[in-house]
Write a structure and sequence with these properties.
This protein has one helix and no strands. The protein has 75 residues and is mostly helical. The N and C termini lie far apart (98 Å).
Amino acid sequence: MDGRTPMFVRIDEYEDIQNLMNVAKKKLNQARATLSHISTLKIEEDTEIDKWSSTLEEVERKIELIDKALFEQEG
């Protein structure tokens, strides 16, 4: 014997439990799908932020070059 005691459940209770488990599984799948979608959006957002950061750095370099050129012409 494995030490387990048999459990008796009424059929209508068993069906209710089955339905609850199915609902829980569906909700879990929905949560996983939502999390996957959020993860994809985050990756896209991070990529876009990196592009913006690179653009800003490029603009800063150009402004520094222009500022340096103007300063050297004055002096």
